[in-house]
Predict the structure.
Amino acid sequence: MISSLFIINSTGDIFLEKHWKSVINRSICDYFFEAQKKASTPEDIPPVISTPHHYLINITRKNIYFVAIVLTEVPPLFVLEFLYRVVDTFNDYFQECNETTIKDNLVVVYELLEEMLDNGFPLATESNILQELIRPPNILRSVVNTVTGKSNVSDQLPAGQLSNVPWRRTGVRYTNNEAYFDCVEEIDTIIDKSGSTVSAEITGVIDCSIRLSGMPDLTLTFVNPRLLDDVAFHPCVRYKRWESERLLSFVPPDGNFRLMTYHIGAQNMVAIPVFVKPSISFRDSGGRLDISVGSKQSMGKTVDLLQLSVQLPKSVLNVNLNATQGTYNFDQQNKRMIWDVGKLQPQTANPKISGTINLQHGVPLPDSNPIVTVHFKIEQLAVSGLRVNRLDMYGEKYKPFKGVKYITKAGNFQVRT
């Protein structure tokens, strides 16, 4: 399965490598560096790179590349899912996954990787089980381990490792029993110059924070579950009940985890919560930029963190703009204009930005207009219309506190000009 793992920073330095079988020379990463040079952005790097004797399967998170080396053909999604589990585990242990935290906790990182894979095959990937096997680092434990020479690895096998629910540890007790669900949806859309939607899709996740005592058995129902066609579940979900009754029945892991992901494609009508009216033109004497933005179908909710960015051509020297709301910044090196609009209240005047574009003399005019990329966040709104109906608990007698939060964000939201 997986023979080696290399972790590479944004400058191309391999600052960590782990081998489960034979040691593979780090020169194998040259194939990855070649693909990286050809890609315009980190997202454009092919997730699977084929070489004469190996396959390089990679993901990127916060300017860090996780590259797994595979000797034989395997399902790529299987390896990608494992790499995502590694990142999630690092986030659980160190609060964030970046080069600094990995270097500061190298011993724990190697212990985790040793437990997560056995001879190249995934073994223990649930955070609950790993935290019983390998204690999360803290200052006191680090001092004690330094003085006594002990490690963070537990001497006993976790009780949940051999049970029917290996994702949940036994003997969980809380003073306050709580269950929170975050329904987060991202809109990926392309809108043409006239404002018509070329394509629109919604990718959603339901993230959970469960702090419940004992061994609770939960049932989550939706008002309109037929919206969810393309779904993927955490292993704790009983898939047969979803197929027959369209509800989620599961014994939850303890702590934070992702219950499900779903995708709503172009066959459904996707409501676009904001509209953008761009007008960008170039002439020999210079260029002109006019952009207005407003609330469209936000159901009366406030649009937060609204930001528009425009990647202008290399022939642009500078811009002279005036914004009716927020501030703008122009990066002369990357030729990118970013307009931070801020909050967009419903039923208020639409913010606008307009002005002139200065071009280099003697340089041909750009042959294509730039694309406006939009970012925003809307609280308490699931743009797909998905709603949680109720949450029932069986197996325990106490009544937990329950909460559901809805968030809509812009994913790959592009407006053509």
